[in-house]
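The data layer described in this paper is built around a simple, fixed record for each protein. Because each token names a local backbone shape, the row as a whole describes the fold. We quote a single record here, exactly as it is kept in our systems:

***
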Amino acid sequence: MDDFEVPSVPYHSEIPRILFFGLLGVTYFFLAPLILPFILVYFCMGYIIYRNQLLNVYAPKFETGGKFWPIAHNSTIFSLVLMHVIAIGIFGLKKLPLASSLIIPLPVLTLLFNEYCRKRFLPIFKAYPTECLIKKDREDLNDPSMPQFLENLDAAYHDPALMPIQYSSSTDGHNSPLLRAAEV
């Protein structure tokens, strides 16, 4: 009987789709306001479905440590700045200079908020906490395959640029060319 393997979350296909629909919804609802209810329904249904799947269906194969959140934050900031630029353009085309000029500070404030978040929160996502690293090291000490892994570690990769060059030797003492001329 085959063992059943619990599937993992297909990050490679799901996350870009969610970010793309977020970009479309946030950016283009000025041009087509009819898109907003559909995007809201998509995200509400997505929240219900993905929450159920993450809690009850999928099993995590690895812990990302929150490495995805800077990507989601950057794409959201990009969507907001693009939305502001589109709104300035639309209000400019509709000859609403007051509305267009009132939106000009929004991209600046959004980028300042992004810079604040990068300085405040990005270091948290760049390195794991020491507590987690110590726990992982203690788990690795009890792993029976660790001594074999450490023995093979020094020979695991050899950089070709650092390998000694081996020339082919000929019997006549001369270096032979790579291509020989055809004998007649």
